[in-house]
Amino acid sequence: MADYREAPLASRPKTLDPAEYFNLSQDYRRVEQDRAAVRAKLKRQYQVQLNNPLRKELIEDPALTRWVYARSHIYPHFRPTAKTSLIGTLVTVVPLLFWFGVFKTDRDQREERIKAGTQPRGYPLSY
Asked: Which of 12, 33, 58, 113 suits a disulfide with 119, CB 3.0-4.6 Å?
């Protein structure tokens, strides 16, 4: 940690901030240890189920179950923000306006060439 140099355009990561790293209260450290103990217990329980040679049923992974549920129930939990509105606009409206402009200018240029007599008018239904 002593040889870490800060980048000119980035802030110091929170994990390397000495005030956050060394000056932790006892309550915070105890809570972190409790969380780590719960994670270790769940990991141990899952690994015991996974490596059981006599198992016949599927292993229920709560994290995977939550992920699948979240992926299949997107709209009840969707929160519109400025970012999602901007992305939606860029994905739907901007391409429509772009292609409208491309086709309109092409049609106008073709019509001008037809009126000037440099391009023959094709079959009327293919216009």
From this structure: 113
